[in-house]
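G.,

No rush on this.
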Amino acid sequence: MAGPADSAGARSGTGAAALGPADVGAWQVLPFHSEVLAVHAALLPSGDVLFAAGSGNSLTRFQSPDFGDVAKRIWVSVVWDPTIGPPPGSDTGFFHPATPHDGAGKVLDFFCGGETFLPDGGLLSAGGTLVFAHPGAGFAGRADTVVFDPAIGQWVGRGPMQHGRWYPSLINLGDGRVLVTAGLSETGRRNTSIETFFPGSDAWQVSRTPPQFGGLPLYAHLYLLADGSICYAGGHMDDGPADALRLDLTRDPVVVTAVPGLSQVGARDQCASVLLPPAQAQRVMIMGGAPGGGDAIKDVDIVDFSDPHPAYRPAAALAKGRKHLNATLLPDRTVLVTGGSGRNEAAPLATNEAEVYDPGTDTWRTLATASVTRMYHSVALLLPDGRVVTAGGNPKQGTHVEWDNDPNEEMRLEIYSPPYLFKGPRPVIEAVSTGWRYGQTVNIASPDAGHLQWASLIRPGSTTHSFNTSQRLVDLPITAQAAGSVQVTVPAEPNLAPPGWYMLFLTDTSRVPSVARWVHLGGAPGTALPGSPYNDAVLGTPALAGYWPLAETGGTVAYDVFGANHGSYIGHPGLGAPGARPAATAVGLNGRDQYVLLPRLVTDDFSLELWFSSRGGRGTNVAQWWQAAGLLDGEVPGTVDDFGTSLDAAGQVWAGTGNPDTSIHSRAGLADGKWHHVVFTRKESTGALTLFVDSVQVSAGRGGRQRLTSAPGLRAGVLQSGRNFLPGSLADIAVYSSALPPATVTAHFRARQ
């Protein structure tokens, strides 16, 4: 532990003797410690806080045979309940998950990996330390992926990345996937690829990037924007500077464009950045940082992505230059900055005074002074009650195996209570539904209706190395408030509020927030399922795994109306095209660069169902399904356990599985511009394959009997390999975890009317 704790009582900032907590807030050092070095921290949907250290920047601990031994209290992570105040020396407020290991029995070291939340509330941790730097070797990254499951309080292994990553960046996407990029690979080289994790498929898939794309810096600061693109803000960790960029993930390959105007590009090492509240404003702010070991800067810049030509512009500067600072979004729609130093890990130059930024006025205000210095490897998180917990600090590598006995490892916890907690009664949320859909209207019971300024969703934070990958504040427009009821509108755009758990805050006209209630956002909007006998037939079918009507008229997300395993439109295809049924809509594809990316939710027994209309397939002299234009395809060159459907130039529908390659097909002439219903079924136990077109069984065969894992994502409108795009329209794609019987296929076809 780094020095004795100051008084556990709250105190105001130095130099602010005439100001009270209602002006500058107050800090309180807690009478117990974090139990591991809080290099990584996340607020779980339960309201608990997870601190993860792995080896905690200690080669001694990493090399010890006791590393990860829970019985000896050498934990790699702990879960803390901030609502419990155990007496000194007691750990009743802490839970200790089992240590995860790899297939060889080695501890999975979280240190310098990356984390963000999955839609179901699990915390995805990817990468970390495979090789700890020592004489003769540098750091190298793991490819392992694990998820902390709050329901069971344990780490669970998930599918690995293609290559290792040390210092990676992870963020959520609007369709529920997680993007990872940057970091050092298992060989210690720069990993320049972009991968996305499909939760429903439990697997990662590499995104194509242009040849000139050299990757992003270590711990690159990334933000999902409303149009589905990604902003690299310019912040990074421990490597050379890189200009800010915008990466359009809705294109294949990814399109990369510059974001000009960032000042002091070479001085943004270990800076902080945020998506300013509310997320609808589409403004990214970057603050502080330093040029390597040089003096920290106080420069602040903001870029507005609602501008057709976004560029950074100067904003009000910090009071002091800071490096290693943490920035936290508060429910009063301000940005709190804590910790940091005037130079690289220089405690005498530490900045313990907090500052707060008001985006509405472009002003900073100095707040109370913390007791505990926070620099490198420190964290800060917003709690559901509106307070902020700060933890960690590690200016030099540790030299001990056991926790809480190392002068280089700061184990004290300190809580900051913002001024709004000292300004009288707080608004109250008496009741609200937990499960939310995009675009819906929600009623919130509150006795403060009529006196509220804002309703907000705040995504729980997940932070390390001065960058919180998860936090964002989303405005919920208040449409009515009276008689104890507040009516709000949920955003219809998942790129503004990615699927997952959020804290709901009500803030009154004095900018005092309520205690948060947890809500889960992820369900498809009502407009994604217009309603028809056909929709009802599909949704009522046993073994349905996912159903994408493709009825959207805008945006980039293709909604799964059954299980919230959403997909994405790639290449900006034509939405709202005439559909397969009266008044129904579909997606129109140009046959060049447009398709729909969907999660693969099936592996063994399955059925693929879709409607298509086309006047031209691809491929002549076709002998296998992977030679024609993709309808719904999971084929990957070099991958044998795959499957898919396609349409050739003669208008034959093909379907098949790999290992061995086995394909069946329909008659020619189906590329006639009319709508056709296709169902392809497979039974693993026998390898039986059956193809139905317009309710008629047109072909059957027998393929392999192994699991068909293929790629994690299926592509509708092109082969998985990126070849042979389909010109035409698609609608009502559904996948099932069983082989549909002929009677069900016929019933679906007849329900189209």
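When you get to it, here's the other one too:
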Amino acid sequence: MNAAPGARGILRRAPVCQPKSGPLSPPSPPSPTRRAPRWPSLATALAAAALLFTGCLRSQPAADLTIVNGPEPESLDPHILTGQADGRVAEALFEGLTRYNPETGRAMPGLAERWDISPDGRTYLFHLRTNAVWSTGGPITAEDFVYSWRRALDPATACEYAGNLFYVKNARAFNAGKLPATDTLGVHAEDSHTLRVDLEGPTAFFLDLCAFWTLAAVPRELVQRYGDRWMTARPFAASGAYVLESWRLNDRIRLRKNPRYWDAANTHSEIVDLLPCISPTTALNLYITGAADVVWDKELVPVDLLDVLLKRPDFHSYDYLGNYFFRFNVTRKPFDDPRVRRALALVIDKDRLVRKITKAGERVATCLSPPGIANGETVYHPPAGLPYDPPAGRRLLAEAGFPDGKGFPSFVYLMDTQKTHEKIAIELQEMWQRELGIHVELRQLEWKAYLRAQYMLEYDACRSSWIGDYDDPNTFLDLFMSDNPNNRTGWRNAHYDQLITEANQQTSSTAREKILQTAEGMLLREEVPIVPLFFYAGIEYFSPDRISGVHANLLAEHPIRAIEKHPVQAKPRPAPAAATHDRKPAGVIPAG
């Protein structure tokens, strides 16, 4: 999933609603509407405005749990959203056949209480819970999943994560518009509580995929009636642990516990506020002052204070499946030449980036798949990519017709507005100028404009990142198949596509690993449409004495339903003889 901060630099409170004279009544439901274009900024704004109005009708009680969530979401529709901050909210509202285990990040039973798998690994029978109902009271059925998966795959939806369903029989062809008859899609309701899924081949990570938001159940009746504005309809229909109470732009998203959720007894917080914020200083101040209980984005940690903060017991660092890289737009010259792309990759001193800028224990990346990622029951060993070798880079650039950078056109490196990205871009700019003699302009866009530019290939080179959706190298390598909407480089290679497809049909993890290694080597040593820079180190801050349910795992998955805030325990007053006047060391920010 995309894992970049958004564009708003500080948290700004939404304006207070001023009601007109006379009694207030709730807004009427939206009228039915047709689907809007792919970039739903207007629909999102209308939805948020309606929710803002609804939220102003009554005084707001304090939240039981407040989380700084990163950028303002683009959408909360599981089939539209792309960002990590958006997905965290959607996962609380909509559940799939499986859900994430808060300790391991792996799949555990969700709306399906159990499943049967055929001996060849190609057919799954999911048995839905008989007590699973929408927050409005109606039963959640197998037909709801058939509809939801078809919607995600429908070309008209333009779901960028539709590829997560391509392992289902005929899903790829259906998404490409080649199979208009939906009955050919390999997902069928055997009865109201039995869902049959036929796959193209054995897929070791399929149950983990079923926990991802794209495969969650959405309310068919509301979506069909209201189109893109279905999330503004009331009553709100959720299949997950929470319902959406309000969404106030630049202020907060408020979730309320869904009392009809099948596992409501283990949903620990009644009201949860998620605050939009991309400023590390603002995030830290919200935490220190007690306005927030959890901050769970590494990029919301002030880099200049990392040395101090990482020593605190309420700052938690761990490895997870995240890669920071940049993309080339290979449809633009001179980046259509692999020699040029390799030359720019070879002169990057990645060790300098993690020592000088990120400073949180990030590991240099020459491969795309992070160390420790699973390959079935074994561990995948990715091949090494290009090393740091400036002389080799200069030779390749000369071979491409640009000796010492002469004649190389100035190009633009695109990024969003987070400060760390700017610092990294400045270092890349200096390295390319010093080692290759080429000039780079830096350009920053707000988050949504940045995503659109990347999606539309309106860039030369741009910073990027990816957080694994499941614990398997396919979650990274599948991105750059020709028909994956998240490719966003213009690079297409039929042999690479064939290798990834062939690898995922293997039943032997050893045979699969060899094929994946061949594909990853081609991607990062030969073709180089992307250049990995480092693997993320996860950092979250919360007091372990007050917050439970947040566990380090490779996917950085922390289901909101599992998080609980505990009251502060009064400390016994020390005896008079032992009283002291302690002073905190200079430079240490007091814990919130």
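Confidence is low (pLDDT under 50) at residues 4-57, 575-592. The chain has 16 helices and 21 strands.

Enjoy the weekend,
O.
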